[in-house]
């Protein structure tokens, strides 16, 4: 196995652990939801304790998802034929499986829960199903609390397509300026409570997404070294516990540091894996389906078997059942739609002047998570 000194990889290289990381992150979100459904997210969430109340496991996993997504979507733009090809790739990756999950939640999970007095079912009409899918939003988040992040992903796909079409992704300074601007708004939103008319989640999620994008733009300059990994880990540990107490410090400093130190640690884990980790990338194929179906399945299992469940058994049973749904989604929906838009490779669209790129997520990582 060849060892690379930077984040840059030759075209077609598969020596990474992106798929495995996504599978682990998705499973972490599922565990976080189990803790929440049992009312133990504050007292038993290990990340709450490690970070002095600044982060939950689910929150950190979502931020990590957006860092990886920013890196891989920038790579996808670099390997696209232009605006239309890029959006087609992203839409066929997101919409079919999302629409199926909305249908399952609306027509199966919500009525089943409503019949037991838990949730009210959404209207089972074409508009009730099509409109949420078209906007990548879903109003019954009480039934499927995972779907709220999907629309942010698509917003940022559109954003990358626009700035890519304008040629800005070819200029490193412009990518860095966009990230600094987003990070500045994020800092203001936490330290000053400034929203400036911006939807609450955008400063956080866009900053993490652009951390991945700027890392891709500077991939030939960012060294992948154990020394910098140690520095990043030490900084996160210090900001998460030793320096900051959520009870006495007015700002969530670790949240602001994660797009820097957390992003580096994550990309280090993704692109300097051992051979065994790289071989487990196939697990990432199930990440998107697991993310889409786990929440309503967790709710249904909780309602049906609550007296016999604890957090661990609830998580394991829900995770296993949702994994079956993810496998069906992968084989019957995701892969067929991805094959429909596959075309012969064309000359890449470089983000930076260097000739070698990492191609899009579907060709390089063989993962099927939502990036």
Description:
The chain is mostly helical and 371 residues long. The chain has one domain (18-364). Helices cover 64% and strands 0% of the residues. It is built from 14 helices and no strands. The longest helix has 32 residues, at 83-114. The chain is globular and about 55 Å long. Residues 123-130 and 344-371 have low confidence and may be disordered.
Secondary-structure element string: HHHHHHHHHHHHHH
Give the mean pLDDT. 80
The SS-based structural class is: mainly alpha
Which outline best applies? globular
How many distinct domains?
A: 1
Helix content: 55-70%
Low-confidence stretches: 123-130, 344-371
Please outline what is shown here.
With 371 residues, the protein is mostly helical.
Keywords:
371 residues; mainly alpha; 64% helix; 0% strand; globular; disordered C terminus
What secondary-structure arrangement, pairings included, does this model have?
Blueprint: H1 18-37, H2 46-50, H3 57-78, H4 83-114, H5 126-134, H6 148-165, H7 172-191, H8 202-217, H9 226-242, H10 253-271, H11 275-279, H12 287-305, H13 311-340, H14 361-364
